[in-house]
From TrEMBL:
Organism: Chengkuizengella axinellae
Domain Restriction endonuclease type IV Mrr: start-end pairs: 75-183
Enzyme Commission numbers on file: 3.1.21.-
Domain DNA topoisomerase type IA zn finger: start-end pairs: 206-240
Protein name per its UniProtKB record: Restriction endonuclease
Keywords: Endonuclease, Hydrolase, Membrane, Nuclease, Transmembrane, Transmembrane helix
UniProt xrefs under Pfam families: Mrr_cat, Zn_ribbon_Top1
Enzyme class, first EC level, given as a word: hydrolase
Keyword Membrane found: yes
Transmembrane feature ranges: 14-32, 38-57
Entry GO MF terms: endonuclease activity; hydrolase activity
Length: 240
């Protein structure tokens, strides 16, 4: 079975094809009218240089946009810090925000209120795409909180089954891109930056239910998980 190419590799090949097409079109088009090899090569080189300049400018704008949003710092947060940041983000938009208790939250991490609307939110700071569990949890919390809407907000994207389930249950999904758009739509400097949240808000302590020591976030082939800090003495793991 053929190995699927990464998005970066596909993008690289697309750019190479574009540059090749521009160079060939500029060369043969110019040569058709001028019959001059030197002029045709110069025009082809200028065409490629222009395309490269445009791509560099677009890449710079993209990098600057990501930097201003602070999304890379959000990627370093734990769930508790991510919820804390989102509470600031929604308060800046006029919502009243309740951060639910970590134990017994009944499927919602935040409860928002604005204009006679109550919204339950699942906040998912993950290192991989979000599955159907988040949609099931937040949808089931609507009745308990008597909410009008249910949202899932993540620093990542969603699996196809998760998107299908969300559509069927009218759960609104906010992807990584939509979160960035939301942050940049307001003044990012009007709220604590993600880097400040990382410094000011402590990681949520999670105790090992086997030995009582702290659990810490580790990374494995299937993504992030909580592992006992005493590993390898204690090998207890808990999914995030």
């Amino acid at each position: 079975m053929a190995r699927r190419k990464s998005k970066a590799k596909q993008r690289e090949e697309l750019i190479q094809s574009l540059l090749g097409f521009v160079a060939a079109s500029a060369f043969f088009g110019t040569f058709y009218f001028t019959k001059s090899l030197i002029i045709s090569l110069m025009v082809a080189a200028i065409g490629v240089a222009v395309i490269i300049s445009i791509l560099v400018i677009k890449h710079k704008k993209k990098v600057d946009r990501l930097k201003r949003s602070g999304i890379h710092d959000m990627d370093k947060m734990d769930g508790h810090q991510f919820e804390h940041y989102l509470s600031h983000l929604f308060k800046s938009q006029g919502y009243s925000v309740q951060v639910t208790s970590a134990s017994g939250d009944y499927g919602a991490d935040l409860v928002l209120k604005k204009d006679n609307r109550k919204i339950v939110v699942q906040a998912k700071r993950y290192s991989k795409n979000i599955g159907i569990e988040a949609i099931q949890q937040v949808h089931s919390s609507m009745k308990y909180y008597q909410a009008d809407e249910a949202w899932v907000i993540s620093n990542r994207f969603y699996t196809k089954p998760a998107m299908n389930l969300a559509k069927a249950n009218q759960v609104q999904l906010f992807t990584r891109q939509e979160l960035i758009d939301m942050i940049l739509k307001i003044n990012p400097d009007a709220i604590p930056r993600p880097s400040q949240i990382l410094e000011q808000v402590q990681y949520e302590e999670k105790k090992c239910n086997k030995c009582g020591h702290n659990m810490i976030i580790r990374k494995g082939p299937r993504g992030e998980f909580y592992g006992c800090s005493t590993f390898p003495k204690c090998r207890n793991v808990v999914s995030i």
